[in-house]
């Protein structure tokens, strides 16, 4: 047993179905009434304080214990002998000022006895009070040497944060470009390789539960429906998550079936936008136990219309940027015993935008483009997760198949002279279909000992088919292909990873880990053009390396934590193709890049837990930075632009009063510098990373109070994004900073109620993105104005 001085008030032991805490705890899966510990346990717990006695009980029973610190006073009971966990807790807490509840197999929550006065509803707005699994273990983020933020599903629903873009303001260091739905790119800590997505792998790994969703694609823009929480781990996570986690991990954790009872909810939204088309959404979920405490199913679905707000004066079309999004998810959970769990998931989403969101300065919310520029982004996936626990270890197998397909059409008339002389207009068509087969096998230690460990094996087989075409609009033949590149990539990645942590001394923990990986990428391409001779390409690239991680943390008796960590992220290289004219030899390939992160952080709790502060400073060195760029003709290619150094700080502050007021503030400051430029790329390398403003900040204020049987909640949210360069070229335009805001009022009772909200209440039209069409970048500056003031109403009801 650990010395009492180093025992933490919350013992966290990974169990089958525990994944999150909201307020004190949120149960992942849940519903089972069985105790995960053996039927009878040999206890030896001396007379001591209730907190210490509960810690001893949890360690000896090997269960998760939440909230032992709420039980003050001294126990008069000694536990000795063989008994069940229920009997031990009942006996220990007979005269205690607290009680216990089994919240999931192997997880016990300690709660204070209710006071005489009626309890008021707890605000869903919170920060850093969730257990997270972003580090491959169930942990309280306040006890991790990682900058982790988790937003519970209740907070997302209370604030109307339905996707990554809308939730970004609640997460320090998280940015999302605004090219349009299904086209955006997530960025963490300003570690940006550019605003567009191309051949370079995404710097942020996007996950749905245990399975990655993207390779080099834009964010799929999943609507966050029936989610347990959203997790963000900032900084390179290559040791645990591999090549897609250069700057961090973004995870949507779904709500699993409740095996104990029926449940359902439906929500409907209608909104109107000044000068734009109407918007609306319907979403809901239903939970059905198939076999009580053994198996259950949970089904969720949604359909949404985002009304357009831009008018095209050339095409004489109104509200051209209308978007539809619909999707569904089915999860089946089977838990035949306390030691076995099987979860099966099938999910999909379809997104269609009728046009892009950019325009030109001086046009207001109008645009002048010769042809429509629609976009589609579809994703489907099937996953299976199996967990088996025994003794001091737990084995988890996560398998998945993901199909991600997205298409875009651009007005390319400005560059059609490269391919034809007689076309009236021309369009450039991009189509990409990525198929991923993923297997992740991880073995972790269980218990609260001084030594903890994990080991994993990972394998992924990805195929990417990305045909592109230049379509000329001839008077005699519309959509005639005058150029095409039929490109196919096959990427295989295998890796072995692990981590060991050891308590060197009371409250001091040292951890070391890493990932040994091998990536093989084969590229085949067939280029045809009316003006130039066809050509073929078949090239294979291989990369093998090691990504380390090392950390040291100090836990204080108050529950505070200080840490330092050094971690790395990496991406493999690849091959360029396409273009009517071949690239120069030095640009035919691009090399791997690597980012090393040096970080120090502090996590504090004050004022009886009402004040939380999480802060970190970081210094990153990015070697041979990859970026997706465009030739003068608009055709994309990938290159290594040079090195970059990033010095930054970020902080999250949350304060909650006893009268229902909650405030959350977050901010990020960063200074980026580029050096050792690739002279073949540009002679005017910008001195900061594109799409990486020096400052970004967010604020979320909430106030609630009871009104009879109802609860009234008022929410205000604001975000500021500073100005930033658009590309690595110093001669390119620079985006302006902008602020966005949202106001919301909710009236609810027993799972039913309504919300009224206003977005962009000041009707600002500031630019939120400054580069929308690579085939027309030099004709005029491009901007994406904010959606005009929008007023909406949401009705909801649940069982």
From TrEMBL:
<keyword id="KW-0408">Iron</keyword>
<keyword id="KW-0410">Iron transport</keyword>
<keyword id="KW-0472">Membrane</keyword>
<dbReference type="Pfam" id="PF07715">
    <property type="entry name" value="Plug"/>
</dbReference>
<keyword id="KW-0675">Receptor</keyword>
<feature type="domain" description="TonB-dependent receptor-like beta-barrel">
    <location>
        <begin position="374"/>
        <end position="741"/>
    </location>
</feature>
<protein>
    <submittedName>
        <fullName>TonB-dependent receptor</fullName>
    </submittedName>
</protein>
<keyword id="KW-1134">Transmembrane beta strand</keyword>
<keyword id="KW-0813">Transport</keyword>
<dbReference type="Pfam" id="PF00593">
    <property type="entry name" value="TonB_dep_Rec_b-barrel"/>
</dbReference>
<keyword id="KW-0812">Transmembrane</keyword>
<dbReference type="GO" id="GO:0009279">
    <property type="term" value="C:cell outer membrane"/>
</dbReference>
<keyword id="KW-0406">Ion transport</keyword>
<dbReference type="InterPro" id="IPR039426">
    <property type="entry name" value="TonB-dep_rcpt-like"/>
</dbReference>
<comment type="similarity">
    <text>Belongs to the TonB-dependent receptor family.</text>
</comment>
<dbReference type="InterPro" id="IPR000531">
    <property type="entry name" value="Beta-barrel_TonB"/>
</dbReference>
<dbReference type="GO" id="GO:0006826">
    <property type="term" value="P:iron ion transport"/>
</dbReference>
<keyword id="KW-0798">TonB box</keyword>
<feature type="domain" description="TonB-dependent receptor plug">
    <location>
        <begin position="142"/>
        <end position="249"/>
    </location>
</feature>
<keyword id="KW-0998">Cell outer membrane</keyword>
<dbReference type="InterPro" id="IPR036942">
    <property type="entry name" value="Beta-barrel_TonB_sf"/>
</dbReference>
<dbReference type="InterPro" id="IPR012910">
    <property type="entry name" value="Plug_dom"/>
</dbReference>
């Amino acid at each position: 047993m650990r010395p009492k001085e180093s025992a933490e008030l919350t013992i966290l032991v990974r169990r089958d179905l525990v994944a999150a805490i909201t307020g004190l705890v949120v149960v992942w899966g849940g519903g089972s009434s069985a105790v995960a510990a053996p039927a009878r346990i040999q206890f030896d717990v001396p007379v001591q304080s209730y907190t210490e006695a509960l810690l001893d009980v949890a360690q000896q029973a090997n269960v998760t214990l939440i909230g032992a610190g709420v039980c003050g006073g001294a126990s008069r009971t000694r536990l000795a002998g063989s008994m069940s966990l229920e009997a031990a807790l009942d006996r220990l807490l007979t005269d205690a000022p607290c009680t216990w509840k089994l919240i999931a197999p192997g997880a016990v929550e300690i709660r204070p006895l209710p006071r005489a006065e009626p309890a008021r509803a707890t605000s869903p707005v919170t920060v850093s009070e969730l257990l997270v699994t972003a580090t491959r273990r169930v942990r309280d983020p306040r006890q991790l040497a990682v900058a982790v933020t988790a937003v519970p599903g209740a907070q997302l629903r209370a604030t109307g944060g339905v996707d990554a873009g809308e939730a970004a303001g609640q997460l320090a260091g998280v940015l999302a470009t605004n090219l349009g739905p299904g086209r955006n790119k997530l960025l963490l800590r300003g570690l940006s390789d550019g605003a567009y997505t191309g051949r370079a792998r995404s710097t942020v790994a996007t996950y749905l539960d245990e399975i990655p969703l993207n390779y080099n694609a834009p964010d799929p823009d999943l609507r966050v429906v029936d989610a347990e929480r959203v997790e963000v781990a900032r900084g390179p996570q290559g040791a645990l998550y591999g090549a897609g986690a250069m700057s961090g991990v973004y995870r949507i954790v779904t709500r699993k079936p409740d095996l104990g009872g029926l449940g359902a909810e439906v929500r409907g939204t209608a909104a109107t936008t000044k000068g734009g088309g109407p918007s609306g959404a319907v979403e809901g979920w239903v939970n059905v136990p198939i076999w009580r405490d053994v198996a259950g199913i949970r089904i969720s679905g949604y359909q949404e219309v985002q009304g357009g707000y831009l008018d095209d004066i050339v095409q004489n079309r109104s509200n051209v940027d209308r978007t539809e999004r619909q999707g569904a998810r089915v999860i089946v959970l089977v838990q035949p015993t306390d030691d076995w769990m099987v979860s099966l998931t099938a999910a999909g989403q379809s997104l269609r935008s009728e046009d892009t969101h950019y325009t030109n300065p001086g046009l207001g919310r109008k645009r002048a483009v010769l042809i429509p520029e629609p976009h589609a982004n579809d994703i489907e996936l099937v996953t299976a997760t199996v967990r088996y626990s025994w003794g001091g270890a737990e084995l988890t197998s996560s398998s998945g198949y993901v199909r991600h397909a997205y298409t875009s059409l651009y007005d390319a008339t400005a560059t059609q002279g490269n391919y034809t002389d007689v076309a009236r207009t021309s369009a450039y068509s991009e189509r990409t279909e990525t198929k991923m087969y993923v297997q992740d096998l991880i073995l972790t230690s269980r218990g609260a000992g001084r030594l903890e460990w994990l080991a994993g094996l990972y394998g992924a087989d990805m195929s990417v088919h990305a045909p592109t075409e230049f379509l000329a609009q001839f008077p005699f033949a519309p959509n005639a292909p005058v150029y095409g590149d039929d490109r196919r990539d096959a990427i295989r990645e295998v890796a072995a990873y692990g981590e060991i942590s050891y308590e060197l001394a009371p409250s001091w923990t040292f951890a070391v880990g890493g990932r040994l990986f091998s990536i093989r990428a084969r590229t085949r391409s067939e280029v045809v053009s009316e003006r130039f001779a066809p050509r073929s390409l078949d090239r294979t690239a291989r990369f093998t390396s090691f990504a380390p991680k090392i950390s040291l943390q100090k836990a204080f008796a108050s529950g505070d934590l200080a840490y330092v960590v050094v971690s790395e992220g990496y991406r493999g290289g690849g091959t360029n193709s396409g273009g009517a004219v071949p690239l120069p030899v030095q640009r035919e390939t691009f090399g791997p890049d690597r980012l090393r992160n040096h970080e120090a952080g502090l996590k504090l709790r004050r004022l009886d837990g009402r004040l939380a502060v999480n802060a970190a400073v970081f210094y990153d060195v990015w070697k041979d930075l990859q970026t997706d760029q465009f030739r003068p003709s608009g055709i994309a290619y990938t290159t290594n632009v040079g090195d970059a150094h990033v010095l930054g700080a970020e902080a999250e502050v949350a304060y909650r009063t006893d009268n229902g007021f909650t405030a959350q503030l977050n901010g990020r400051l960063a200074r980026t510098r580029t050096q050792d430029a690739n002279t073949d790329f540009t002679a005017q390398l910008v001195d900061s990373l594109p799409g990486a403003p020096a400052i970004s900040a967010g604020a979320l204020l909430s106030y609630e109070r009871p009104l009879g049987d109802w609860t009234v909640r008022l929410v205000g949210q604001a975000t500021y994004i500073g100005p930033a360069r658009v590309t690595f070229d110093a001669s390119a335009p620079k985006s302006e900073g902008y602020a966005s805001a949202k106001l919301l009022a909710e009236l609810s009772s027993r799972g039913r109620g309504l919300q009224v909200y206003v977005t962009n209440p000041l009707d600002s039209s500031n630019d939120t993105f400054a580069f929308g069409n690579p085939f027309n970048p030099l004709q005029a500056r491009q901007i994406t104005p904010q959606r005009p003031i929008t007023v909406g109403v949401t009705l909801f009801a649940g069982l």
